[in-house]
Amino acid sequence: IITDEAMCHLGRSLDGATVVIQGFGNVGSHAARILYEMGARIVGASDSSGGVHNPSGLDPALLSRFRSEGGRLVDYTDGDSVTNAEILELPCDILVPAALENQITAANASLVQARVIVEGANGPTTPEADAILQDKGVLLVPDILANAGGVVVSYFEWIQGMQHYFWDIEEVRTKLEHIIKGAFREVVSLAEEQSVSLRDAALMLAVNRVAQAIDIRGVFP
Predict the structure, then answer these.
(1) Between the CA of residue 79 and those of 36, 143, 166, what are the distances in Å?
(2) Which of 8, 104, 155, 175 sits at a 20 to 30 Å CA gap from 182?
(3) In what order do the strands lie in the sheet with 18-22?
(4) pTM, whole model, 2 decimals?
(5) Model confidence over 45-72: pLDDT tens digits?
(6) Dihedral (CA of 71, 68, 19, 204) sign
(7) Helix, strand, coil fractions of the chain, as percent rounded to 5
């Protein structure tokens, strides 16, 4: 949802956009599948062993089957083998770092060719890399915004448990989309108003909400 919103913000379509995903685990594999279903072309993917690059496109379902049978993506034959460092530097429209923290650093940020970075992992980009990417004009959607969907749906589960009233999957998806899209637009609006990055804008919004809640509830004198 966030990736689609980011592309729309740039006046681009997700349909036909090229995507590289570092980390084909619980976040990355599902991101690849859903983006593929939305029309994007997955041109690179990696796991802990390394990865595979195919400019013509990769089928996430086949990648998942290969891994479930014990295969390593670095050994996948439908493309060229790459390291986890090299996969971050592949030409693409969208890069999704969904593996470990501190993957994009001052040492490699200038080599990133993606137009959009959507953080699936926690803290995959260092502050020094943030500055370099911003100077390059890369739109970076921070982890606090991009991978918040799991926390939102966990909140939905808590609500349903408290009410003993359960929603069907379409209602969950509709409510999630409403919240995520609204959050993205709020962050973009503040970033443009204050001339800051999306990361800074997201943190400004978050800190302000906590401060307002504390003030309203009178938790502290």
Answers:
(1) 17, 29, 44
(2) 104
(3) 80-82, 50-58, 41-47, 18-22, 94-97, 116-118, 139-141
(4) 0.92
(5) 999 999 999 999 999 999 999 999 999 9
(6) negative
(7) 50, 15, 35
